[in-house]
Specification:
Length: 96
């Protein structure tokens, strides 16, 4: 399951770059940077003492909450739960 998700996201990133090298058209910036604005802040707050992928997962959740994307939010939470990826600071502290 995890390998399938990694391969899928790598393929998606390649498609976005092939279509839009500058990451500013056709929504590719949103796809490629999804959650990173929030994750950058999380990493700064924790002085980079958190795995980047965990910070991005938390950032994706925060971004979907902020954008009120309830359907995608539910799907993301289920996926991260299936993969045992923490999405809150509390769950991260228990996870590590």
């Amino acid at each position: 399951m995890l390998l399938k998700a990694i391969l899928w996201t790598a393929s998606l990133k390649k498609i976005c770059i092939d279509i839009d090298v500058e990451e500013n058209e056709n929504g590719s910036h949103r796809i490629l940077r999804g959650g990173h604005d929030f994750s950058d802040r999380i990493e700064e707050d924790l002085r980079l003492n958190i795995p980047h992928g965990i910070a991005v997962a938390m950032g994706i959740i925060r971004q979907l909450e902020a954008e009120k994307e309830h359907d995608l939010l539910g799907k993301a939470k289920r996926l991260f739960s299936m993969l045992d990826i923490p999405i809150t600071m509390e769950s991260y502290k228990k996870w590590k």
